[in-house]
């Protein structure tokens, strides 16, 4: 009986498999057709729908989301994966913000600007000052800028303060805290674990590795940071007071009076900042929307005020630069040896950009925009030397320092004809260190022993499972001292100073741009536009008809097809993205999420050093995160 039924089951099974295969194949074909249809739609959208029509009396909306950066970080793969995983990849390029305001300043269709800052994550003070300068320049045309947020932190408020009118939600406020940082010090924790940091450094102020060998800040670190923080705080408060027409010194005085002042208004923080004239009005966004409708009229749909987003506005306005120009190369982020995506610096990839710009006959000068705390000494030298070769071939080179150009970030600036820094730039930190962590104590606690045969003492001489061999320490110390001597020697030659003078200014100490200029470490204090103008003068040429040479941001060449694919994949990610939750690091460590993130940030640079192929890496890194 079962033998006669079996063929029937086999037939039914094969039939079921065929139906399943048909369904699977049909689903695949349908998915491919859907993707192709979506792609065709995206082609139409990108090439036709994005041609923005701008009517008269339009509001340019600067809805700033994410951090203000020189270059959007990560490659295409990182951005798509970020969107798919529900992680924000938003950022605002400083040059886009500046360009949008510069174009809108002369555009008769743009009536005013709305600066919306709810999701703005800020930047260093130098970048904020550059953005504020662009806002002030736009206001000088006679057009107003209105700032609004549900509540301002001090980075958001620095931009808002430069608007013509500042509004905040009635339940919001302005939180200006001041500058400073509290660092974690891990020595006692490492001692308990049986781990030795083995920091090798040159420079009494080179405090980058101190958290791993001390239980509290050194006197030198506190002295250096106080010198910089106080100068930055003065620049910040003066900027606010001048923009809001407040008495000098009033911001610090009002902060000192805060507890009693808030009690006097029965805890109404919004009313307090209005009384202090930090904001002009308490207003919901719906109320502001109606105010703008009354001022400029409704959009085509009749739902809100007539407006255009700044990214759409730029896409409609910007035209490619052709012919003679100034090449701007952005050097942002950590410095590595090889190739790096946007938002980071690769010794090979960045020097290659400099080389191609040098060889292009249309490039009349190079401006290197630096925003970097440093990193690999070798990668830094590759870039510095490539800039030297550009100068040797007759291309003027100007460096413009952004928020940070310290340690390796200063190293790469040493071959320029001129070095410009913002007054608030963090620079200097001329010093070198290496760290070789060992866990011999931890191995003892675990009861794990290590042994084996070696033909020479140098084979596996640095073994993190064992105490550091004094001979290895001597080798690394010699190497670090050699790199430091090379560093200050090149700096002395570039700055036309005696080596002893540079050594006294170096020692790993950080300076503001204004302090660095006073000590001869940079040539001029000014913004990016000042550096570009200096490059134009050095180039000594015009674009024709007495027009100044335009600038062109120099990067890897991307074809129209590649650009379309990037936009297409990002749109797909936006439409099909899903959230996968936050980092699992907190659950692994058992620490609260915020604390675990800080610990992870402290150690991530160490992982990068350990991942190198060589047994140790000498780093020209300031590990400084001094932001408003």
Question: What features would you describe in this structure?
Answer:
The chain has 628 residues and is α/β, with parallel strands linked by helices. It has two domains: 222 residues, 2-enoyl-CoA Hydratase, Chain A, domain 1 (Alpha-Beta Complex), CATH 3.90.226; 266 residues, Alpha-Beta Complex (2-enoyl-CoA Hydratase, Chain A, domain 1). The protein contains 23 helices and 27 strands. Strands 13, 16, 18, 19, 20, 22, 23 and 26 form an eight-stranded mixed beta sheet that branches. Helix 1 crosses helix 21, helix 13 runs parallel beside helix 14 and helix 17 crosses helix 18. It is globular. The N terminus is likely disordered.
Structural class: alpha/beta
Number of strands: 27
In helices, the fraction of residues equals 40-55%
By DSSP (H or I, 4+ residues per run), the number of helices equals: 23
What's the CATH class of the largest domain, please?
A: Alpha Beta
Distance between the termini: 84 Å
Low-confidence segments, ≥5 residues, pLDDT <50? 1-12, 42-50, 80-87, 568-591
What's the shape? globular
The CATH homology group name of the largest domain: 2-enoyl-CoA Hydratase, Chain A, domain 1
Strand percentage lies at 15-25%
- Average pLDDT level: 84
Largest sheet: 8 strands, mixed
**Domains, number:** 2
The CATH architecture of the largest domain? Alpha-Beta Complex
- Rg, rounded, reads 29 Å
CATH topology of the largest domain: 2-enoyl-CoA Hydratase, Chain A, domain 1
Give a topology summary.
Layout: H1 2-49, E1 58-63, E2 66-69, H2 76-84, E3 91-93, H3 94-106, E4 110-116, E5 120-122, H4 125-139, E6 145-149, E7 152-153, H5 154-160, E8 165-168, E9 174-175, H6 187-193, E10 199-202, H7 219-244, H8 250-256, H9 258-264, H10 269-275, E11 281-282, H11 285-296, E12 307-309, H12 310-317, E13 325-332, E14 335-336, E15 345-346, H13 347-359, E16 363-372, E17 374-376, H14 377-392, E18 397-406, H15 408-411, E19 418-421, E20 426-428, E21 432-435, H16 440-446, H17 470-495, H18 499-505, E22 510-512, H19 513-518, E23 524-525, H20 528-539, E24 542-544, E25 547-548, E26 551-553, H21 560-576, H22 585-589, H23 593-610, E27 619-621
Parallel strand pairs: 1-4, 1-12, 2-3, 2-5, 4-6, 6-8, 7-9, 8-11, 13-16, 13-26, 14-15, 16-18, 18-19, 18-20, 19-23
Antiparallel strand pairs: 10-21, 17-27, 20-22, 24-25
Helix pairs in contact: 1-21, 2-21, 3-4, 3-12, 13-14, 17-18
């Amino acid at each position: 009986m079962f033998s006669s039924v079996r063929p029937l089951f086999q037939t039914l099974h094969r039939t079921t498999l065929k139906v399943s295969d048909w369904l699977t194949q049909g689903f695949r074909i349908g998915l491919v057709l859907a993707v192709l249809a979506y792609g065709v739609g995206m082609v139409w959208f990108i090439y036709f729908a994005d041609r923005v029509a701008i009517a008269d009396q339009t509001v340019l909306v600067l809805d700033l989301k994410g951090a203000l950066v020189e270059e959007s970080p990560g490659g295409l793969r990182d951005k798509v994966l970020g969107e798919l995983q529900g992680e924000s990849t938003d950022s605002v390029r400083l040059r886009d913000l500046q360009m949008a305001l510069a174009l809108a300043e002369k555009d008769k269709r743009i009536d005013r600007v709305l600066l919306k800052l709810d999701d703005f994550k800020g930047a260093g003070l130098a970048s904020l000052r550059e953005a504020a300068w662009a806002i002030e320049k736009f206001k000088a045309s006679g057009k107003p800028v209105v700032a609004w947020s549900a509540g301002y932190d001090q980075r958001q408020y620095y931009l808002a303060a430069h608007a013509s009118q500042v509004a905040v939600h009635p339940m919001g406020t302005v939180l200006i805290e001041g500058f400073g940082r509290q660092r974690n010090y891990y020595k006692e924790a490492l001692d308990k674990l049986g781990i030795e940091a083995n920091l090798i450094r040159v420079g009494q102020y080179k405090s980058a590795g101190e958290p791993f060998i001390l239980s509290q800040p050194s006197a030198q670190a506190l002295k250096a940071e106080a010198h910089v923080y106080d100068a930055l705080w003065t620049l910040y408060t003066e900027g606010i007071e001048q923009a809001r027409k407040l008495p000098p010194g009033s911001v610090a005085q009002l902060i000192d009076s805060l507890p009693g002042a808030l009690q006097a208004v029965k805890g109404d923080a919004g009313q307090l900042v209005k009384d202090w004239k930090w904001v002009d009005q308490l207003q919901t966004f719906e109320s502001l929307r109606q105010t703008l409708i009354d001022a400029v009229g409704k959009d085509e749909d009749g739902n809100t005020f007539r407006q255009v987003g700044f990214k759409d506005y730029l896409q409609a306005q910007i035209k490619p630069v052709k012919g003679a120009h100034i090449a701007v190369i952005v050097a942002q982020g950590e410095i590595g040896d090889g190739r790096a995506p946007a938002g980071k610096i690769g010794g090979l990839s960045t020097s290659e950009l400099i080389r191609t710009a040098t060889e292009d006959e249309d490039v009349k000068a190079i401006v290197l925009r630096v925003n970097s705390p440093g990193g690999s000494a070798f990668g830094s030298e590759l870039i510095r030397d490539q800039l030297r070769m550009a100068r040797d071939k007759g291309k003027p080179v100007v460096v413009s320092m952004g928020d940070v150009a310290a340690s390796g970030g200063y190293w790469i600036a040493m071959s320029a004809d001129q070095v410009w820094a913002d007054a608030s730039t963090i620079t200097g930190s001329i010093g070198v260190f290496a760290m070789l962590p060992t866990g011999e104590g931890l191995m003892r606690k675990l009861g794990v022993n290590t042994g084996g045969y070696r033909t020479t003492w140098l084979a596996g001489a640095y073994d993190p499972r064992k105490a550091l061999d004094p001979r290895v320490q001597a080798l690394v110390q010699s190497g670090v001292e050699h790199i430091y001597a090379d560093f200050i020697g090149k700096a002395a030659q570039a700055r036309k100073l005696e080596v002893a003078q540079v050594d006294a200014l170096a020692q790993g100490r950080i300076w503001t741009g204004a302090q660095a200029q006073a000590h001869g470490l940079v040539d001029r204090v000014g913004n990016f536009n000042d550096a570009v103008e200096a490059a134009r003068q050095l180039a000594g040429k015009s674009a024709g008809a007495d027009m100044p040479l335009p600038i062109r941001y120099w990067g890897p060449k991307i074809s129209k097809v590649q650009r379309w694919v990037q936009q297409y994949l990002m749109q797909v990610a936006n439409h099909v993205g899903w959230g996968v939750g936050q980092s699992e690091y907190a659950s692994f460590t058992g620490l609260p999420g915020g604390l675990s993130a800080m610990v992870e940030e402290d150690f991530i640079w160490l992982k990068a050093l350990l991942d190198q192929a060589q047994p140790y890496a000498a780093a020209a890194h300031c590990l400084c995160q001094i932001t408003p």
